[in-house]
Write a structure and sequence with these properties.
Strands 1, 2, 3, 4, 5, 6, 7 and 8 form an eight-stranded mixed β-sheet that branches. The chain starts with about 40 loop residues before the first helix and ends with a strand. β3, α10 and β4 form a beta-alpha-beta unit. Mean pLDDT is about 80; it is low at about 1-40, about 155-165 and about 305. By secondary structure, it is an alpha/beta fold. α2 (about 50-65) runs parallel beside α4 (about 90-105) and α5 (about 115-135) packs antiparallel against α6 (about 140-150). The chain is built from 13 helices and eight strands.
Length: about 325
């Protein structure tokens, strides 16, 4: 297992408040009249199953931080206390962000996954030449790049119980897309003058280079405004080699997914003006599935709009999409 060396000392919390860490308001039932829009009510809301995943994510985070047993128990007790009172009207990324920022607040470690992200990027860069070869020698380079971009999504410490760096690439290339909007993506790409690419985790950003190259359009590559779990930041994207292939832009948000009301005005203008949006990962699907946009979702649905590409890696996501866990999905937002 990858670890970050030093033990963390837990400061005493004087108040039970995450407001300084996460300026996100609960969804108001009157959201439409308040100008938030119909999409708020259509976003994917959390389910009771999600709470188990959030607790497991917290346990993985304290293990990565190498927190000792007593201190770890204190952190997890705070997390369970928070989860016991959380509203399931929120999206999973909103709750996940609050859990992560709570751990940051308790430990004082601003980027718990920093070394993990670096290690994942380094592992991915080592196999990048082979990935490029697979794309170059394939019958359909764009489709192969899409499937490999999905394969990169397995490098996700937020959702995976274990990741040892080994990916069976052939198993991905041999799988069919269970939801296959690839023809629609090709048509949309022919019309598009520009593409907004919503990044997911840091390690898979190396795989994203394959797809960016095959899009053959100017690409804006959107990353998080600061560290949140193992999602890609500007530093991670640059380390992965995205600079020079795409313009790296920040959403301004420090939460998983792309909750537009938590993003900067500049990013929202970019989102609204994009000809085509490729959305990577589970969090982006959960927060954007209710938006009206040229979205294609790229996602991973396993056990455990433009257009979206997805491999279902979560039972809740798989049920929402009506696919079996483990399915590869390229879904156009209609």
């Amino acid at each position: 297992m990858l670890k970050l060396g030093n033990r963390c000392k837990i400061p005493v919390l004087r108040e039970w408040s995450l407001a300084p860490c996460l300026a996100i308001r609960p969804v108001d039932p009157a959201a439409k009249t308040m100008g938030v829009g119909e999409a708020v009510r259509k976003m994917m809301k959390a389910r009771p199953d999600c709470l188990v995943c959030f607790e497991l994510q917290a346990e993985r985070t304290v293990r990565i931080l190498n927190v000792d047993g007593r201190e770890s128990a204190k952190i997890l007790s705070h997390v369970r206390r928070f989860l016991s009172s959380v509203s399931l009207e929120a999206t999973p990324p909103e709750i996940g962000a609050q859990v992560h920022h709570l751990i940051i607040q308790l430990t004082g470690v601003k980027d718990p996954y920093r070394e993990v992200k670096r290690a994942c990027i380094e592992q991915a860069l080592k196999i990048y030449p082979e990935l490029r070869r697979l794309v170059r020698t394939s019958e359909d380079r764009l489709l192969t790049a899409i499937k490999l971009a999905i394969a990169g999504n397995v490098i996700d410490f937020g959702a995976n119980r274990e990741f040892e760096g080994g990916i069976d690439l052939r198993s991905f290339l041999d799988q069919d897309l269970v939801i296959n909007d690839y023809p629609a993506l090709r048509r949309a790409l022919r019309r598009a003058q520009n593409v907004l690419f919503l990044a997911d985790n840091a390690g898979e950003s190396v795989f994203d280079r394959l797809l960016i190259k095959e899009l053959r359009r100017p690409v804006a590559y959107a990353v998080k405004g600061g560290p949140i779990i193992n999602d890609a930041t500007r530093e991670d994207a640059e380390r992965s080699g995205i600079r020079g292939m795409a313009q790296i832009v920040s959403s301004g948000s420090r939460m998983p997914g792309t909750l537009l009301r938590a993003c900067t005005a500049r990013f929202k203008r970019l989102f609204q003006s994009a000809d085509l949006i490729i959305s990577k990962g589970q969090g982006n699907y959960e927060t954007l599935c209710g938006e009206s946009a040229p979205l294609f979702f790229l996602l991973l649905a396993w056990r455990g709009l433009r257009s979206a590409l997805l491999k279902a890696k979560c039972n809740v996501i798989a049920r929402h999409l009506n696919v079996e866990p483990g399915s590869l999905v390229l879904l156009q937002k209609r």
